[in-house]
Design goal:
Blueprint (H helix, E strand, L loop, with lengths): L1 H7 L11 H29 L4 H23 L13 E3 L4 H11 L1 H20 L1 H4 L5 H23 L11 H20 L8 H15 L28 H29 L6 H19 L6 E3 L1 H10 L4 H15 L2 H8 L3 H26 L3 H19 L9 H7 L3 H15 L9
Antiparallel strand pairs: 1-2
Amino acid sequence: MEKDNKKLDPIYELDGKVSVGKAIPFGLQHVLAMFVANIAPILIVAGVVKMPPDQSAALIQSAMIIAGIGTLIQLYPLWRIGSGLPIVMGISFTFVSVFCVVGSKYGYGAVMGAALVGGILEGILGLCARYWRRFIPPIVAATVVASIGFSLLGIGANSFGGGFGNPNFGDAKYIIVGTITLVSCIGFNVLAKSFYKQLSVLFGLVVGYIAAYFYGLVDLSRMATAKLIAIPQFMPFEMEFHPDAIFAIFLIFLVSATETIGDTSAMTAIGLRRNVSEKEISGSITCDGLVSSFSSLFGCMPITSFSQNVGLIAMTKVVNRFAIMTGAVVMIMAGLFPALGVLLASLPEPVLGGCTLMMFGSIVVSGIQMVAACGYTQRNVTIASLAMSIGIGFTQVPAIFKIFPALVKNVFAENCVAVVFLVALILNFILPENMDEIR
């Protein structure tokens, strides 16, 4: 009987009529499940390119607004941009590795220029998705997701130890604060009940932040000078356009598109109990690309669908668009208050590291689970194992790219995700479909 009532409740219907009072808690739940992951990529890349704290704070402000806008467009499409599904968008971890490489070489302006072009190209591909989607089967997407997690583990470990370029890297205070944060995340996840488990990262963040404060790692001096309300600055960085950077980042946009295909397909299968339509896939990828280009105009990194929010819907079965829309509005409103950006930008590296280690590890496990769901056929095992061994192995020894042209080295030598994606794609083309039947 309870199950029948659950089905009748409009909160479990895509377009069910729900009061604002009932919708807001569910919307907030989605914001709380993703907000740390939404700002972490910016903090990581900002640290690598030595961005001043006031600029990184402004980008966090923009990130919250862009994530809210992207989510609104996914929920309520504009023309063919958006899927019409309860997909929550946020700043993508997928680009962190390549952005760190490009940003270190050319500066943040080159990162934004490449993101602008790459996003437009992905948007065009999204509009034409029905012509090429069949060339990226689930095993390729699954292998890419696993490689993303592996590529980020080193970044999480660097933050855990004090951050890139820190002369005191590995000092006891950094290790202690990072450990406190990580243990708090795990403990809360084990002990909390129901959907509260989704707040384990937030709990660890708060506990770690308090510990870091007592170790003198928190600087809130700029809080007093922060404006009450401010609008994000248009074009805060002068864009630069380098062919190798654009090519490298466009490859990652293709990777992001494969993730979006997976998230959109999972959303309809788990939340709506049906297969995804071509129109939904096309709209989802187009939103991913074009809103990412829009994001670059405000100095912000590309956005993508957030898998953790797909998981939250899988657990709660709440697919109501209006309820999730309230969360998008909360993100936009929060982004209009710079003091919040200053507070989040003051997160010490080991606190961020303690949280991201848990998140990055979960990406690896999610990829492995996706590979398992594809089935351990000889063909799938060959694609996944060879793509990851070449992609991860070769990029750990970048000198192996010595004989290749500079463009190839700049794109692939330190970007394992791009290598994995390309190798998996090539193997999918050349390996016979009936490989398991061949004797």
